[in-house]
Amino acid sequence: xxxxxxxxxxxxxxxxxxxISFAADTIKIGALFSVTGPASFLGGPERNTAQMVVDEINKxxxxxxxxxxxxxxDTAGDATKAVQLATxxxxxxxxxxxxxxxxxxxxxxxxxxxxxxxxxxVSCAASIKITEPVKKWVFKTAQNDALAVAKxxxxxxKIKQTNVAILTVSDGFGSSGREQLKAQAEKHGIKILxxxxxxxxxxxxxxxLTKIRGSQAQAVIVWGTNPGxxxxxxxxxxxxxxxxxxxxxxxSSKKFIELAGDASEGLRLxxxxxxxxxxxxxxxxxxxxxxxxxxxxxxxxxxxADTFGGHAWDAVMLxxxxxxxxxxxxxxxxxxxxxxxxxxxxxxxxxxSESDHAGLTKDAFVMIEIKNKDWMIVK
Length: 379
What we know:
The protein has helices spanning 2-24, 40-59, 79-91, 104-117, 145-158, 172-185, 206-213, 228-238, 254-260, 287-301, 307-326, 330-338, and strands at residues 27-33, 68-74, 97-99, 121-123, 138-140, 163-169, 191-198, 219-223, 245-247, 268-271, 343-344, 349-350, 366-371, 374-377. It has 379 residues and is α/β, with parallel strands linked by helices. It has two domains: 12-143 and 288-362, 3-Layer(aba) Sandwich (Rossmann fold); 146-271, Response regulator (Rossmann fold), CATH 3.40.50. It has a five-stranded parallel beta sheet with strand order 2-1-3-4-5, with helices on both faces. A hairpin with a 2-residue loop joins strand 13 (366-371) and strand 14. Helix 2 (40-59) packs parallel to helix 11 (307-326) and helix 5 (145-158) packs across helix 6. It is globular and about 65 Å long. The chain starts with a helix and ends with a strand.
């Protein structure tokens, strides 16, 4: 009898130890998102989506039998805080990769940390400077601002509007967009008649718009993220400006329509396909992933998903696929990320390489227009 008790005790102890070992043996992925603060419209959906994806991966058995553990920190959109939290993820939490940050400014600030510590960083921000020039340990999922500019300019060429005014926010995203708008103008036959900026916290841009109104511009291109562009749309309507307004992909969410209200009607912008997934043809290679993502998000959070959450979906899935193919060491993840080909994500079809850590072309965008407070594909 005593022998049986000893054997049973040994088995129970083994099971407990095994459970403790499995619980401890998770693969830790760090995440830096602007869950609060001015960029919460980016970071909130990104945080939700990243956790949703990790939960679904774990429910399906994890990666190679091991569960993923997502460690999320809120940067509040602060670049200094993002650097501190990135260091904490690496030094204290021992993560094998980091997804995020949400904004271009934060991403640029965190890059030196990722490069120094040899930890893969998959940014969810848009500036071309994040991955150009190529940094060994840095990748991104948001479409480059350079691609967005090209999409807008090609559309303007098509409708024979070549004289434009640009109004850009004076932060990392806006500065990078402004550089691209100026750099690509001549190549696309575009003439910039007015070039002005506004501050991230500005609440009235009538002065800049009044100047633009007298410039003979055929279109106004606004580059920024909420709430600035929504304020500009309202100011333009108040001033009676009829010149067509184009926005950057930085406002690709229903939040912009809510903020701009009736002033959003008729505005155009380049966007990922998530906002118009149901309008895509069956032949579109992204449609299946997009519809699945939108349905999952709605079921989990009782809210509409957007392109920003999609950037986090792509980041987590890219890291997960890299672990499956190469293992969970930071070096192996980095190497496999760089080998990623034809990955059908939410932001587009990714093809990374040694010379391209952004992985997308301008085909990742469609031109959309706001009609009756909803999105429509521009034909």
